[in-house]
Amino acid sequence: PNLRCRIGHASQVHSRRVADDSQAAGPDDDLSAAVRARLASGDVAAATTLVVQGHGPQILGYLTAMARHEADAHDAFSQFCEDLWRGLPGFMGRSSLRTWCYVLARNALHRQRSRAPHGTENITPKMPPIAQTAAMLHASLLAIVETVVPRMMEA
């Protein structure tokens, strides 16, 4: 009996939370609209950059907290950026953009963990163009994080 009450209560709380979220427009809605506009114009790179600028610092923080090594977090973030760039044109909006980004990040980290142990990965001499783009986005985000985070800490 207690289990049913708890389950029922949790679903009521979830339903209430979903209803509240759908009524309140937030920054993710603005970002999603801007991303959709860039995608509609065919500019996947600009749309990806917007997402990385908007959600990247939180995603990198999440990956850093979840990864065993900071280098693994950065590698997973690079993979996240690549997955984002590849998958963004097909994003259907069945979840919020933010939620989808966290799923991509989690999956990138799982793939990172399933690879060879830290420091023993095979390094290919030439990166494919998509990996170069992901590395460039990663470097851009790190630069953003290095400037934004200290300002946030001061506030």
Question: What does this protein look like?
Answer:
The chain has 155 residues and is mostly helical. Helices cover 78% and strands 0% of the residues. Helix 3 packs across helix 6, helix 4 packs across helix 5 and helix 4 crosses helix 6. It is globular, with a radius of gyration of 18 Å. The N terminus is likely disordered.
Structural class: mainly alpha
Distance between the termini: 48 Å
* Poorly predicted sequence stretches spanning 5 or more consecutive residues: 1-24, 120-125
Chain-averaged pLDDT: 77
Strand content: under 5%
For the report, how would you describe the main beta sheet?
A: none
The number of distinct β-strands equals: 0
The ordered H/E elements are HHHHHH
Helix tally equals: 6
What general outline do the C-alpha atoms trace?
globular
Proportion in helices:
over 70%
Radius of gyration: 18 Å
In a few lines, what is going on in this structure?
With 155 residues, the protein is an all-alpha fold. 78% of the residues lie in helices and 0% in strands.
Topology:
Blueprint: H1 2-23, H2 27-40, H3 44-66, H4 70-87, H5 97-114, H6 129-154
Helix pairs in contact: 2-3, 3-4, 3-5, 3-6, 4-5, 4-6
